[in-house]
Every structure is written in structure tokens, then in C-alpha cells.
Design brief:
The chain is an alpha/beta fold. Helix content is 44%, strand content 19%. Strands 2-1-3-4 form a four-stranded parallel sheet, covered by helices on one side.
């Protein structure tokens, strides 16, 4: 069985797809990762506004570890994220609030990953559209 290097968590935003592909290609990961794409990426799998989605992500990660023997999770969020705006729900949403939301999602993923899969490494990236 081929050993894949990573699972990539990224956002569904159509403006973002070519950036994710290019980023992963530059990291020499083409054909070496499984993919999980959901609105908000890290925010989508951690924020309480999207709570019904959380278990689906962790179930998919579990399957990817078993099926593809991955050893790394790469979480790629992006700026100008509409899911972050939905999650925040306030009128005064700005880039500093969005940055805090991204960082909090990364922190929450790292904590949960360490408990569930301590051997799986994690990398985080925020791309600009």
C-alpha cells in the first residue's frame, strides 16, 4: 500500500482552489495527500456555529489515517473567509477579528489532534486570495 504524506483540510471557496493546489505542488505533495474540503476549513471544523460538521471531519481524518497511513495534517485557511463572517455573526467584522478566528481554529485543532492522534504532525497556513 502506498503511504501518503498528509491529509489537507481546506476551504470550499472557488477563489481558493488554485492557490491550494499551487501551494501543495510547491511543497512537492501532488498525489501524496488526501483531501477534506469544507466551508471555513479550520474554522468550519472548530467553531460552535458549525458544530454539526466537527465529528465528520474527525471521522474522515480517522479514516485517512487508517486507509492512507498519513502522518501529517495540513490545515489551510484563507483571508477574506465568508465562513468566518458567518461564524462571527457581528456587524463589525474586520481583518483583526478574522485573524484571531483563524489562530483560534488552529489552536483548537492542535489540542484535539494531540489528544486523538499524538503521532500525527500538524502544519497551519493562511493564504491570501
Amino acid at each position: 500500500m502506498r503511504k501518503y504524506k498528509a491529509m489537507v483540510l481546506s476551504c470550499i471557496d472557488p477563489r481558493f482552489q488554485s492557490k491550494v493546489y499551487k501551494y501543495l505542488k510547491n511543497k512537492k505533495l501532488s498525489g501524496k495527500y488526501s483531501s477534506f474540503t469544507i466551508a471555513g476549513a479550520g474554522i468550519g471544523v472548530t467553531h460552535k456555529k458549525f458544530k454539526k460538521w466537527h465529528q465528520t471531519f474527525w471521522d474522515n481524518l480517522n479514516a485517512s489515517i487508517k486507509l492512507h497511513k498519513i502522518s501529517k495534517l495540513i490545515v489551510i485557511n484563507h483571508k477574506d473567509c465568508s465562513a468566518a463572517k458567518i461564524a462571527y455573526g457581528g456587524n463589525k467584522f474586520d481583518s483583526s477579528i478574522e485573524n484571531k478566528m483563524h489562530k483560534l481554529s488552529f489552536k483548537n485543532i492542535k489540542i484535539k489532534l494531540k489528544k486523538k492522534h499524538p503521532k500525527v504532525k500538524v502544519n497551519f497556513k493562511i493564504l491570501t486570495i
